[in-house]
Amino acid sequence: METSRKGQWLSVLICVVLLLKAEGVPVGITFVENAVAKGAVCLDGSPPAYHFHKGSGAGINNWIVHFEGGGWCNNVTSCLSRRDTRLGSSKKMDTQLSFSGFFSNSKKFNPDFYDWNRIKVRYCDGSSFTGDVEAVDPATNLHFRGARVFAAVVDDLLAKGMKNAQNAIISGCSAGGLAAILNCDRFKSLLPRTTKVKCLADAGYFINVKDVSGAQRIEEFYSQVVQTHGSAKNLPASCTSRLRPGLCFFPQNVVSQISTPIFFVNAAYDSWQIKNILAPGAADPHGTWRECKLDIKKCSSNQLSAMQVFRTDFLRAFGAVGNSPSKGHFIDGCYAHCQTGTQETWLRNDSPVLGSTTIAKAVGDWYYDRKPFKQIDCAYPCNPTCHNRIFDQNERPDV
Fold first, then answer.
1. I need a surface site. Which of 80, 213, 361, 381 has the fewest CB within 10 A?
2. Is 282 within 8 Å of 217 (Cβ atoms)?
3. What CATH number does the domain located at 24-272+315-376 have?
4. Which positions carry the signal peptide feature in this UniProt record (predicted)?
5. Between 13 and 131, where is the model more confident?
6. Which of 112, 211, 270, 377 is catalytic?
């Protein structure tokens, strides 16, 4: 009996170890100390930071530079609320991050990119790496320098070997996914002309729609972000020459002019956008959307109808991407947000699929020009492979 029990515990222990190995590898933090002299700093003036897992073998000259997400701050008050957190100060960041999914070093779980150099750039400026204001108010000590952070991090990586890159991807999730879109062509221009460069935006396609109260809240919010951070000069000129700078924070007004190949991974029912653009707290004073936003299975028929309209609006806005053969997309019908950085949604036996294809295979086939991938899922709840998010009721929204 005792031997049998020990055997059972050993089996459980082995399963746990294998699961942990599959789910991620811890990677330490690197502070870009020399960036401070260039004024390339977080909101609080601390140096920018990233986590770097070096490539190996055939991937030694291949690079993924991924930008972290975390919403935005649109005025002094909201930026102050972030300044002394990990979203505004490298002093408050975890010294280790777990790399899995698109960043895994396991061939089984990340077959096309496991041996690349993989970098996660921490987000601490609140502007999707677009801001650049020289003046610093001594009363707040707020630094709006996201664009300088972007440049300083890329410079640091070039000096550490990326100048020899054969292949490179700029990617990002959420606000970092927007950064990957806005900086796609810029990133390519900073690498050698011989480097094969492509861009990957995960949950970065934020759309300009009215909320459930009829207010154009996200448009006003983005205009305030751009104004506060002095972002206009760092947004694509192909857009700012035609539209007000705040509108150039919306991918639908930028993507048609991107010349570098780019792939979009997005949920048509993006959970962050449902929670913060379609039904933000300010538009729902009685909290009727609260349970629905936490778990899509708790939505009323009227709420689901509003979400189906949001999907229609999303797909209409996504039409701006066009039909260029260099662009690809995986738009699933899930209630989700950021799907490349976690193993369960990137590549696992039960990962979301479109046309029997996982996100990992779609992105790999597209990057290596094996096969184009452009698929849009049917409407919720038609896809049984979805990993629909269920949120903690105490979780704060990113904005």
1. 213
2. yes
3. 3.40.50
4. 1-24
5. 131
6. 270
Phi, psi of 350 (to 5 degrees): -110, 20
Catalytic residue at 174? yes
DSSP string covering 146-182, please? HHHHHHHHHHHHHHTTGGG-SEEEEEEETHHHHHHHH
Mean pLDDT, the chain, rounded, equals 94
Q: Is 189 among the residues known to form the active site?
A: no
Task: Name residue, tokens 């857009």.
Answer: 239
List strand residue ranges (DSSP E) for 306-356, in order.
327-332, 353-354
CB neighbours of 152 closer than 8 A, spacing ≥ 6? 32, 34, 35, 38, 40, 48
Catalytic entry in 53, 143, 229, 337? 337
| 246-263 tens-digit pLDDT | 999 999 999 999 999 999
Going by C-beta distance under 8 Å and a sequence separation of 6 or more, which residues neighbour residue 10? none
CA–chain centroid gap for 373, Å, is 20
Average pLDDT over residues 193-214: 98
Res. 23 pLDDT band, cuts 50 70 90: low
User: Which one of the listed residues 174, 231, 271, 351 is annotated catalytic?
Assistant: 174
Q: Which residues contact 333 (CB under 8 A, 6 or more apart)?
A: 267, 268, 269, 311, 377, 378, 379, 380, 381, 382, 383, 386
- Distance between CA atoms of residues 334 and 356, nearest Å: 15
Residues 335/260, Cβ–Cβ less than 8 Å: no
Encoding tokens for residue 299? Answer: 């939505």
Is the pTM higher than 0.85? The answer reads yes
